[in-house]
Amino acid sequence: MTDTALPAAIDSHTLLVAAVIVHDQVNEQVLLLQRASGAKFAPLHWDLPVGKAEKGEAITTTAARELLEETGLTVETDDLRIAGIIHGSWGVEAPNGFLTVVFVAKRWTGTPVNAEPHKHQQVSWHSTTSIPTEFVYTTRAALNNYVHNELSVFTDGF
To answer: pLDDT tens digits, residue range 53-109?
Structure first.
């Protein structure tokens, strides 16, 4: 075995994405973002904190970074647990679509803020029994499965 990475297989590229369900178990709430009216994808729809991995970045690092960038919350990567996986074939310029690893964070530090007001209309807590209907449907499916204690792999467009 060698420590040298193999060259990228460009023809099989899949965009790697991380999403985070921030779950306040005491109040049975989750933290959601509402996309801005000018968003190029799903304007004014609710979503989880979510974003693309940077080159060479571990997916847990992506999740923690995106959560901080979007909400101001800090989470330790060791505190993230997998809540689901989404593999979609639409909406991105990658031959094999996108793969989103959905994590749950039950511990964090900070107070949520709309840290990217140019991307999000608002950031707010929502009851786990009352998730908004205008929601990006792939992440909504992952969130609903998590709330119902189901680990899921959700595919769309294949």
So the answer is: 999 999 999 999 999 999 999 999 999 999 999 988 866 666 677 889 999 999 999
DSSP bridge pairs for 124: 32
Q: Is residue 7 part of a domain?
A: no
**CA-to-CA separations, 136 to 34, 104, 153, in angstroms, rounded:** 10, 17, 16
Q: What is the pTM of this model?
A: 0.89
Which of 38, 22, 37 is CA-nearest to residue 124?
Answer: 22
Dihedral of the CA atoms 32, 77, 113, 84 (nearest 10)?
-10
Q: What's the pLDDT tens digit per position in 105-127?
A: 999 999 999 999 999 999 999 99
How far, in Å, CA of 40 to CA of 18, rounded? 19
Q: Which amino acid is at 129?
A: T
Q: Give me the number of domains the chain comprises.
A: 1
Query: Which range of residues forms the domain containing residue 109?
Result: 13-156
The CA distance from 130 to 116, in Å, is: 25
3-state secondary structure of 102: strand
State the Cα–Cα distance between residues 110 and 113, nearest whole angstrom. Answer: 9
CATH for 66: 3.90.79.10
